[in-house]
Amino acid sequence: MDTTIRRATPDDLDAAAALFDAYRRFYAQEGDLQRARDFLQERMQRGESVLLLAERDGRLAGFTQLYPMFSSVRTARTWILNDLYVDASARRSGVARALLDAAAQFARAQGAVGISLETTRDNAPARALYRAAGWNEDETQWYSLAFTPGTATP
């Protein structure tokens, strides 16, 4: 069965939202299909992300979402592959690899100097996939500072 990758359009919102909601639930978030749809629709309308969809046998099997960034040091555009999800029924069939390759191809075509992603250290299957796809595991360490929406920091 072949996998086809294409950029999402507004016509894909309902089907993509179902996958996006499943992705969020995978990461222990409350299921909320309308919230997932609204989030994707807003990103599309504002041009804030690129959503690539994987199709197999006429139905969506996975997606990746890319966000544009810039490197001040390199004075150029980069992309962050922020989300990658494959439906359970399509896992271990090459869909994730096809999405990774399509994301890299898209970034190159946009003139970017690189693309990056982050995953947890204990996600061995994903890390093995990224390495097999030619991604380098950097020696840098990401840090984060989380905020609760609607609260002010003193």
From TrEMBL:
**This protein's record includes keyword Transferase:** yes
| Any one Gene Ontology molecular-function term assigned to this protein's record | acyltransferase activity, transferring groups other than amino-acyl groups
* Keywords noted in UniProt: Acyltransferase, Transferase
Q: Where is the N-acetyltransferase domain?
A: 3-154
- Which InterPro entries does the annotation name? Acyl_CoA_acyltransferase, Bact_Acetyltransf, GNAT_dom
Gene3D superfamilies reported in the protein's UniProt record: 3.40.630.30
Q: Which PANTHER family match?
A: AMINOALKYLPHOSPHONATE N-ACETYLTRANSFERASE-RELATED, AMINOALKYLPHOSPHONATE N-ACETYLTRANSFERASE-RELATED-RELATED
- The name of this protein is GNAT family N-acetyltransferase
